[in-house]
Amino acid sequence: MVLVKIIIILGVILLVVAYLTYLERKVIAHLQVRIGPMRVGWHGLLQPIADGLKLLVKEDIIPEKADKWVFILSPIICLVPAFVVYAVIPFSQHFYLANINIGILYIISISALGVYGIVLAGWSSNSKYALLGGFRSAAQMISYEIFLGFSIIGPLMLAGSLNTLKIVEAQSGVWFIIYQPLAFALYLIAGIAETNRIPFDLPEAETELVAGFHTEYSGMKFAFFFLAEYANMMVVSSMAVILFLGGWKGPFLPGIVWFAIKVGAFLFLFIWLRGTLPRYRYDQLMRIGWKIMFPLCLLNIALTGIIYYLFL
Amino acid sequence: MVLETKELLLNMGPQHPSTHGVLRLLLYLEGETIVNSDPIIGYLHRGIEKLAEAKTYTQFIPITDRLDYIAAFPNNLAYVQTVEKLMSLEVPLRAQYIRVILTELNRIASHLVWLGTHAMDIGAITVFLYCFREREIILDLFEMVSGARMTVNFFRFGGVAADLPAEFYPKVKEFLDTFPAKIADYEALLTQNRIWLARTKNVAVISAEDGINWGLSGPNLRGSGIKWDIRKANPYAVYNKLDFEIPTGQMGDVYDRYMVRMEEMRQSTRIVHQALAQMPDGEIKGKVPKIIKPPAGEAYSCIESPKGELGFYIVSDGSEKPYRVKIRAPSFVNLEALPLMLKGGLIADVIAAIGSIDIVLGEVDR
Questions:
Q1: Residue B27: strand pairing partners
Q2: What is the pLDDT of residue B1?
Q3: From the CB of residue A90, how many other CB atoms can be counted at a distance below 10 Å?
Q4: In chain A, N or C terminus with fewer CB closer than 10 Å?
Q5: What's the sign of the alpha-carbon dihedral B317, B318, B319, B324?
Q6: What does the alpha-carbon distance between residue A181 and residue A307 come to, in Å, rounded to a whole number?
Q7: Which residues are CB-contacts of B356 (< 8 A; sequence separation ≥ 6)?
Q8: Are A141 and A115 in contact (CB under 8 A)?
Q9: Which of chain A's residues have a Cβ under 8 Å away from the Cβ of B129?
């Protein structure tokens, strides 16, 4: 039974991730007065599959000077955690893989492992652009991981649990976004930075570092990084939905549909931002993180604590 | 234990997404900070100045299209104007106005390419496609006039190749009426954007004094606060009959150069409006001998191209072919100041700086 669930979830996630790339291309295209992919299938609907096939049959280049095993291993280190975290995400009241007490902690700690994939990819490529990309991600992703962790302490205090199901149940009356608007904003910024999306896409800043940490990757290994990035976007969105927007809760429609709608709204936001904003500079990014985000996170925790102690 | 630190030598280009063609930059880095930089050029060298010596004066006009290939009309104008000076040719008023209209439209097109690529380098991809949407309209106008979108080969000694076609006028009016709103659109995406400000303010600063010492011209110099525009300082064609302003900046940073060019697009729109209204009827070509044989001697004349001061220095020995042609390409001179701007900045600033000096390698390498 569990195995069937695992296969369903993995299959659906892979398909959704593939079509997320399609959605991104279409939405960005229409934002930019273009029409996007149109050739493969009706309105380009088979494009992600064609892309996947293309990447599968492409030559898999390992640079001569690269650290071979680390080079091969790092896309896998990147990809696996991005999919493993789905184990504790409750898609609806009854559809989830594992119900563990430390759900949120599990998500944060597992997804943190993905950073190593990126850092090692930058290091093992033995290319200067990839190295700089790796440096940037080491600084950026590790520090934003901290803000991500701190920003969700507020809602966790309100829920009184790390269990994803209990957190959603705690929002039966009012969604936590009402009580914790500041935490929500902080979480969103940290989440975007965590997934390397514009305006924080410095590790792979195309116009500066060619392709950043994955400059030397091709074929399926490159696709792994790509899949991981999009899977992480969904994880960040799902966590936002669970922590702030009441998870699967909503009137009339079944829980899983509500969950999909809410996650979809976040994914659209990610894409929309990419169509609108320029990119921050590396030092500015770190300054925002440590000098603005971090104090605000602490302030939010303190305020939540005081109010919780006094009134509840 | 003492950790040894080493300078990192990063080769940026000639194949790089944002070195605007085939510019190669050697960056000496300490972490991501730039200690020194070295622009290396020549990857697009076609020997254009030498080519001129083997061609007749007329045959060289189409080759000038290939200098600054995104602004061919100004190149034509600068060359044609110098030969006219050499031969003391009169240009009919109507032809002068046609020249001004087309060069100013080309200035808008060139600035649109600059804005699009510059914004894309900094990460705002959408602006790029908006700019190219408007540029397409201008290129269609050029095609209507000259038959070509970029390599126009349209100006002739003593005039222009043909009169403007009748369908040109409504189209250009339509463009001029809608364009200011489009500029407002670009500005809505960038000018007040916090990230854009953070990326451009106080980045790649060049002072007015350095600007003059390094021979900068065009919007790069005006961004540093020097009000120097050849259209005003030494008016050619019919610019002294037209009313327009020269925008300047103060700081000489990327943001000021950005603001100067944005305003220039508006001013160019104004100029084209006025020129269309003032344009008289009449000849489009003056009295020109069948064979172009300038008397022995030399002449220099320059114009304000979208990139800066574009000058041609021609030495004639009295034959059908020029003895020597020297092109003062603004991009080449502007590029020389790049290392000065980059010093102490970060890699991300390199991209912003290259975009902001608006170079075209076709003109740098010649």
A1: B10, B37
A2: 60
A3: 25
A4: N
A5: positive
A6: 15
A7: B118, B200, B204, B220, B223, B254, B257, B258
A8: yes
A9: 32-34
Q: What is the DSSP letter of B285?
A: B
CB nearest B133 (choices: A33, A207, A284) = A33
Which alpha helices (DSSP H) does chain A contain, by range? 2-31, 47-57, 68-84, 103-124, 128-151, 153-159, 164-170, 176-179, 181-194, 206-209, 219-244, 255-276, 282-287, 294-311
Q: pLDDT tens digit string along B16-54?
A: 777 777 888 888 888 778 888 888 888 888 888 898 888
How near does any CA of chain B get to the CA of A132, in Å?
A: 8
For residues B167 and B186, give the distance between their C-alpha atoms in angstroms, rounded to a whole number: 28
Q: What is the pLDDT of residue A163?
A: 83
Interface ipTM: 0.80
pTM reported for the whole predicted model: 0.86
C-alpha–C-alpha distance, residues A308 and A247, integer Å = 22
Among residues A241, A240, A213, which one has the least CA distance to residue A77?
A: A213
The pLDDT, as a whole number, for residue B103 is: 92
Of residues A69 and A202, more confidently modeled: A69
By DSSP bridging, strand B159-160 and strand B322-328 are unpaired
Chain B contact present for A200, CB below 8 A: no
A281 and B199 within 8 Å at the Cβ level: the answer is: yes
Identity of the amino acid at A171: Q
Note the pLDDT tens digit of each residue in B139-194: 999 999 988 888 888 888 888 888 888 888 999 999 999 999 999 988 888 888 88
Q: How far is CA B261 from CA B9, B21, B142, B328, B358, in A?
A: 33, 21, 22, 21, 10
